[in-house]
Specification:
flat, 1497 residues, alpha+beta, 30% strand
């Protein structure tokens, strides 16, 4: 027998019998032993009883094994074979099983044995009481057994179980779920989890969740949510919360849910499973198809509340009763009901088969009274609940609906044809029209249906959407009662009257025995086609503006809109009958036609191929208005006449038609139609299309096309003319461009052409009309594919006759003149026999390259401003735009061609074979340097140094055969002297990738704003001659930086000189890196030698020459001096730490110029300290400020250190300044360490687990100031010392663990909580701090939260326990002040005890502090913490809680979800006895057990 279990068992019996409390946590080992001795007799007797029971069990087991009959098991008295009372067959008799310890493991074994399913256990004779013997008791299965009889059990020999405790099961495939009233198929939902039954919180619980429950139980596919008041709340654990099912799952396991909650049992979810036998009925109506709705749920009838009751809901209800549809009615129509309200908030989609399938509110929760019962009127399509009244025939009238024996009107918000069509079709007609203005009289004003809206496809008016029917005296105002006229297609009459033939006329329709006209608002070709096709024609043309008279009857139709495949005009949508405001003279007409009678002709032209277009309709030729007449229309016309192409002619080019003949208007062809009549069009009266607007065409066959150029000085230029039908026609130059010219010239055998405008080559014959300008894209084979239209000779507005200059690839039309050699000059092109200039507007390097390459050169420079003279010709080409890939200048695009006023000068070029033959350097002291000059027009021209930079210098020198170059700049003068010639090159911009400076020249002009004192220069170099040295230092690894360029050593100006420049310098001479030194620390170079501007290195360049910006004069280094470096190898020969109490700490010094210099603590931080210490082999370091290790004797040289922590030497960090400086701080120092926590300790606590925090620095343990000391700092401190966590010990006025005797120096600590040591949180350490010695930081560390937290039980009620929290500090269990406490802290306390239900802070005031002189103040939780250890601590203070009172918390002990994380003491329950709280001594329990073992044997 386990001695520990025996101890607990014995003490629990003693405690219960004596009704006393034994608090183990408050007893010493000796006291506990005395308790055991006092009850030694009872313990020994108990042990003997247990041994006797074990022997009895063994005897019974042997009897079972010896039995000859194989045991059997069965289920009886259930609703199916898979449920019932469990009975077993033993020793020849059947008997029941006692429900003691009957649980899921036992039920699973039964169902697995019988069916291979899972089981739900039922107790208390749920399936009725059995008879005979109870053969099994205290059954205990592990769940793995194959038979119930394989489980441990007793044989009920002591007769402590009766048949009222007979066990039962339900076997199923789904997870364990049950309803509290399972036999009634309803109840509180309960699930089995963690070996116990529990409930579900009803938050977000809906009918889909309930349906899944019912399906998993095998009852039905439909479940309803039940109000909280229907089923009493459960007890025990609330297992699930926020269940969310889609409704299709087979069990809860397929749904999402949460296992955390803040619910009580008043929120337990319930469900009612709807059986297939459920029904619906109507009551209180005057006929069987109407009335109040009632539903039967599990045999009980109840009504439906009319909240949100609408027609969708009514449709579902009526369909379930066998009708085709229904209308929603409010309850007052059929009076009050007298049953309970079952359903509320019904929301059907319309597709459901039953109201119970719709979304709804919780069953039984409605607050409706019986005056708000939902009701319906059900109908079948074609029934007699709709009629027309007050019309002259059965086909017209006001619409009325019969409900509850009363006929009432229908009200609308807007009139349309849809509801008229639906109503009339339901009455047996083909369709209907809406009628306005109470044409059939006003009704009583009271209506059944309101806000009718039909789509037009419904079978009944009642199927259209509408507002809920009410019995209130709703009046239909503003003449909104529905009036309609119905029609039947076979009886309808439509006619066309008042035309010159039967095929044309005004359109009239017969409605209600009266002929009326149609308004032409929106009258179109589709409307005319429908009209004429219904009369037997192939199609029709629309006629507007009362061309066929106005008519005398009523205007029946307005805004007709025929679309789709409508067969009759009355089927088309239109405005309300009788509402037309059609103005005088706006009646619609048609011209109908048969396809065989169509004919098109062209008349009044000079040839049979051209003329005015006319169409033969019903024996008359009709002309066409040219509004919108275009090329596609002309193509269709001419193709229908047998031609291949056509050109449109507008503005009555071929005369006007007789005034009495009306015209077609708005022809719109797409180009593929076979006839003009297939194009969209309308017909208007002759007065509408203004005079001179008759459309015409010029038709032609493609084989007759011809193009020529005439009246030029040579065969390749002239006015463009086109031969059409044996006549030559000229082209208007409006819009004439390069594409049109190219197409023209290519069609007559040239490579391309230049467009010429303004009638340069004269006008064509005045007697011949012209063609409008082309609109070519450049790829057409003929100009005919581009011509837009035919125009009159004098109709080319603001333009003239178009011409071209054609050319073949080559340069016979371009030349260079007036240059100093054949390679340069002014660019001219030959036009009309004369050489003309090119304007330099837009003239650039691409244009120059194209020009020169066409002459066989490799490229050219663009020259502007008539540098090669203005010439004697006019400027003809302007706005040149070349892309550089053309093979001739003439193939580039131009802004204008023709005599123009150029805003610039004549363009020129300098062509070259090799670019660098045009570049040289002069006036340098060697051939490798000098002023840069470019050869243009026989002169060497200087380059202005505006924007002159390293890229320009590198390109210049590389083009001359060097490896690279340095720009020679000056802000006031030229480094290599001034040019004597005029400076002309200023627009240079290299990107560094060019092969020659010439490629960078954007333009060359005759003058520039750059004065002669700022000429650009370069210093070129070969890589083999590069050399860098450092001179004038105290050692070989430091000094002034000089660069050897072309046999001269040049100094570097220190403007912008930085770490990257120093690194590149030192690496190029074999070191690992360098420190930059400025202010001529290593002296100045010779004054006679000019300097290099400071480098601009990135740090990776192979040589300093790759960084130097420019060459400057020796006296031009403004506000700076000569740059120097201190080079170093990776290692620590240039860094040391001195003046510390040990070799691990001290002031940081660097070796510069032979002397050890200090480092300024400005910017000195943890990263810098880590880098310094790691370079000496330590794992890290603490930064020390304010000359804590002395000031030293050297100057402070290095300032503004900026390390990232990854450098392997301090010298590799960036610095703000290096050199003698006035440091605003002190000398920087470090404390290095191998293991961080060797520098941290806790002292002055009552145990080794708590105390004041101290850090070892300069041989002294220094306290930490508790400014911003918080939970993160305490956790990091304790984890670094081997604990799992800690809490901060703070005080607003004094130190919890006393004060330090040494000077406090550590104050800048800020942990984020993720560090593994406090040392990593130290930002800096200084000699002094603003923190006084009365506020030293402390911690209390723990391995488990229960080491320092416990909860004391004060009293309890039936469901609630009142507890007080305690924390162990300085060996005392102290309390909490509730200055900031609320229910969040209470929730954490109760959750830590394993209670998930109600938790509240008790507001009872308790003055004074009864727990000692210390208390915790300012304690705060978020509510999400698992235990109090995760909350934020305030301060620990002396005194009492007299102002706020101490803490008491009330927990709901009835809701238990998990084991306790807090220790509960002073409790009489067995659970509390098992939770023994031993503080800091794991040996105590061993001592107790040893003594108990001695006493009990």
């Amino acid at each position: 027998m386990d001695i520990c279990k025996l101890l607990v068992f014995a003490l629990s019996i003693v405690a219960v019998e004596n009704q006393s409390t034994i608090s183990i946590s408050t007893l010493s080992v000796r006291e506990l032993s005395e308790v055991v001795r006092a009850h030694n007799t009872e313990i020994k007797l108990m042990k003997q009883q247990i041994l006797n029971q074990q022997q009895l069990i063994e005897s019974l087991q042997k009897q079972v094994e010896a039995g000859s009959a194989k045991p059997k098991i069965r289920l009886v008295n259930g609703n199916s074979s898979r449920e019932g009372r469990v009975e077993v067959y033993k020793d020849g008799v059947w008997g029941t099983v006692c429900d003691d310890n009957w649980d899921f493991n036992e039920a699973n074994v039964v169902c697995k044995q019988l069916f291979g399913l899972v089981g739900i256990p039922y107790s208390s004779a749920y399936f009725g009481r059995g008879t005979g013997l109870i053969l099994m008791d205290d059954v205990r299965c592990s769940g793995t057994e194959n038979s119930l009889l394989d489980c441990r059990h007793t044989n009920n020999l002591n007769q402590n179980c009766g048949h009222s405790q007979d066990a039962g099961v339900i076997c199923m495939k789904a997870p364990p779920v049950r309803l509290s009233k399972q036999k009634d198929f309803q109840g509180r939902v309960e699930v089995y989890k963690n070996n116990r039954w529990g409930t579900i919180c009803d938050r977000n619980w809906d009918y889909k969740d309930a349906s899944v429950i019912c399906r998993s139980l095998g009852y039905s596919e439909q479940g309803l949510v039940v109000a909280k008041t229907v089923f009493r709340g459960g007890s025990g654990t609330i297992h699930l919360n926020n269940v969310q099912c889609s409704g299709k799952e087979t069990g809860l396991s397929g749904c999402s849910y949460s296992e955390t909650h803040s619910c009580s049992h008043s929120e337990d979810a319930g469900a009612i499973c709807i059986l297939p036998s459920q029904s619906i009925r109507l009551r209180n109506g005057k006929s069987a198809n109407e009335g109040i709705i009632e539903v039967s749920i599990n045999g009980v009838w109840g009504a439906v509340c009319d909240t949100a009751w609408d027609n969708q809901n009514a449709k579902v209800a009526c369909r379930s009763l066998g009708y085709s549809g229904g209308v929603a009615i409010t309850s007052s129509v059929f009076g009050k009901g007298n049953t309970k309200i079952w359903l509320d908030g019904i929301n059907c989609g319309g597709h459901e088969n039953s109201l119970l399938e719709c979304t709804q509110s919780v069953v039984g929760s409605s607050t409706c009274d019986d005056s708000r019962n939902a009701a319906v009127v059900c109908y079948n399509v074609g029934n007699d609940i709709v009629r027309l009244v007050n019309g002259s025939s059965e086909h017209e009238g006001r619409v009325e609906v019969s409900i509850d024996g009363q006929w009432r009107s229908v009200c609308i918000t807007s009139r349309d044809k849809n509801y008229a069509d639906v109503t009339c079709r339901s009455l047996g007609n083909s369709g209907g029209f809406p009628v306005s203005s109470n044409l059939f009289g006003k009704g009583s004003g009271k209506v059944w249906l309101n806000n009718i809206a039909c789509s037009g496809n419904e079978d009944s008016l009642l199927l259209c959407s509408h507002s809920v029917i009410e019995s209130s005296n709703f009046n239909c105002t503003n003449s909104r009662e529905v009036d309609i006229i119905c029609y039947n297609i076979e009886n309808d009459s439509i006619r066309i009257v008042n035309g010159s033939s039967v095929e044309e006329g005004r359109v009239e329709v017969l409605i209600n025995g009266q002929w009326g006209s149609v308004c032409d608002n929106g009258w179109s070709k589709s409307d005319a086609d429908v009209t004429c096709k219904s009369l037997g024609y192939a199609g029709g043309l629309p006629v507007s503006s009362s061309v066929f008279g106005e008519g005398s009857g009523q205007v029946w139709l307005d805004r007709v809109n025929c679309y789709g495949n409508k067969k009759f005009l009355l089927e088309c949508s239109q405005s309300v009958i009788g509402s037309s405001t059609c103005r005088f003279g706006n009646t619609a007409g048609v011209v109908c036609y048969h396809t065989r009678n169509d004919s098109v002709r062209i008349v009044n032209g000079s040839t049979v191929h051209e003329g005015r277009v006319e169409v033969l309709i019903n024996g008359q030729w009709r002309s066409i208005c040219d509004r919108g007449w275009g090329k596609s229309d002309a193509q269709v016309t001419c193709r229908s006449l047998g031609y291949s192409r056509g050109i449109p002619a507008a503005s009555s080019a071929f005369g006007e038609s007789p005034a009495q003949i009306w015209m077609f208007n708005s022809i719109y062809c797409r180009g593929y139609e076979q006839s003009l009549l297939g194009c969209t069009k309308s017909v208007i009266g002759s007065s509408v299309c203004t005079s001179g607007r008759n459309a015409g065409v010029v038709c032609y066959q493609t084989r007759n096309d011809s193009v020529r150029i005439v009246n030029g000085s040579s065969e390749y230029e002239g006015r463009v003319e086109v031969l059409i039908n044996e006549q030559w026609r000229s082209i208007c130059d409006k819009g004439w461009d390069k594409n049109d010219a190219d197409v023209t010239c290519k069609s007559i055998g040239y490579s391309g052409g230049l467009p010429v405008s303004s009638t340069v080559f004269g006008e064509g014959p005045e007697t011949t009309w012209m063609l409008s300008s082309g609109n070519c894209h450049g790829g057409e084979p003929s100009l005919f594919g581009c011509i837009q239209s035919v125009i009159g000779f004098n109709s080319c507005s603001n333009g003239g006759h178009a011409g071209v200059v054609c050319y073949n690839s080559g340069n016979d039309s371009v030349r260079l003149v007036n240059g100093s050699s054949a390679d340069e000059g002014r660019v001219e092109v030959i036009i009309n026999g004369e050489w003309q200039n090119v304007c330099d507007r837009g003239w650039d390097k691409d244009a120059a390259d194209v020009t020169c390459k066409s002459f066989g050169y490799s490229g050219g420079l663009p020259v502007l401003s008539s540098l090669f003279g203005e010439g004697g010709g006019e400027i003809w080409l302007s706005g040149i735009n070349c892309n550089g890939r053309e093979d001739s200048l003439l193939k580039c695009r131009y802004a204008t061609i023709g005599s123009s006023s150029c805003s610039g000068g004549a363009a020129g070029v300098v062509c070259y074979h090799t670019e660098n033959e045009l570049v040289r350097m002069v006036s340098g002291i060697s051939v490798q340097e000098g002023r840069v000059e470019i050869f243009i027009n026989g002169q060497w021209r200087s380059v202005c140094n505006n924007l002159w930079d390293t890229n320009d210098a590198n390109v210049t020198c590389r083009g001359l055969g060097y490896s690279g170059g340095i720009p020679a700049l000056s802000t006031s003068s030229s480094v290599f002297g001034e040019t004597k010639s005029q400076m002309v090159v200023s627009n240079i911009n290299c990107n560094g990738n060019e092969d020659s400076l010439i490629e960078c020249v954007r333009s060359v002009s005759g003058s520039t704003v750059c004065n002669n004192r700022r000429n650009a220069g370069v210093v070129c170099y070969h890589r083999a001659n590069d050399s860098v040295r450092i001179v004038n230092g105290s050692s070989e690894y430091e000094g002034r930086v000089e660069v050897l360029i072309n046999e001269q050593w040049r100094s570097i100006c220190d403007n912008g000189w930085d770490k990257n420049d120093a690194d590149v310098t030192c690496k190029s001479i074999g070191y690992s890196g360098g420190l930059p030194v400025s202010s001529a620390v290593f002296g100045e170079g010779p004054e006679t030698i000019w300097m290099l501007s400071s480098g601009n290195c990135q740090g990776h360049e192979p040589s300093l020459l790759g960084c130097i910006q420019s060459v400057i004069g020796s006296n031009s280094c403004s506000n700076g001096g000569h740059a120097g470096v201190v080079c170093y190898h990776t290692g620590n020969d240039s860094v040391r730490i001195v003046n510390g109490s040990s070799v691990d700490e001290g002031r940081v010094e660097v070796l510069i110029n032979g002397e050890w210099q200090n480092v300024c603590d400005k910017g000195w931080d943890k990263d810098a300290a880590d880098v310094t210490c790691k370079s000496f082999g330590y794992s890290g370091g603490l930064p020390v400020l304010s000359s804590l290790f002395g000031e030293g004797v050297g100057e402070i040289w290095v300032s503004g250190i900026n390390c990232n922590g990854r450098e392997d030497s301090l010298l590799k960090c960036r610095q703000a300044t290096i050199g003698s400086s006035r440091c605003s701080g002190g000398a920087a120092g470090v404390v290095c360490y191998h293991t961080e926590n060797e520098l941290v300790r806790m002292v002055s606590g009552s145990s080794v687990h708590e105390g004041r925090v101290e850090v070892l620095i300069d041989g002294q343990w220094r306290s930490v100031c508790n400014n911003v000391w918080d939970r993160d700092d305490a956790n990091v401190t304790c984890r670094g010392l081997g604990y799992s966590g800690g809490i901060p010990a703070l005080s607003s006025s004094s130190s919890v663990f006393g004060e330090t005797k040494g000077q406090m120096v550590v104050s800048n600590i800020n942990c984020n909580g993720n560090e593994d040591s406090l040392i990593k949180c130290v930002r800096s350490i200084s000699r002094s701090t603003v923190c006084n010695n009365g506020r030293h930081a402390g911690v209390v560390c723990y391995h488990r939260a229960n080491d320092i937290f416990r909860i004391e039980k004060e009293n309890s009620t039936t469901n609630y326990t009142l507890v007080n929290p305690r924390v162990l500090i300085k060996g005392i269990w102290i309390g909490f002040c509730k200055d900031k406490w609320d229910d969040m802290e209470a929730r954490v306390i109760c959750r830590g005890l394993g209670y998930s239900g109600y938790a509240s802070l008790v507001n009872r005031r308790r003055d004074g502090n009864t727990f000692g002189e210390l208390y915790v103040k300012g304690f705060k939780c978020t509510g999400a913490e698992r235990t109090l250890a995760g909350c934020k601590f305030g301060s620990i203070g002396l005194g009492d809680c007299s102002k706020t009172g101490s803490i008491e918390v009330e927990c709901d002990t009835d809701v238990r979800t998990s084991k306790s994380d807090h220790i509960l003491v002073n409790s009489s329950s067995l659970r509390s006895l098992l939770q023994i709280n031993i503080i800091y001594s794991s040996l105590s329990l061993v001592h107790i057990l040893q003594e108990i073992s001695l006493e009990t044997g």
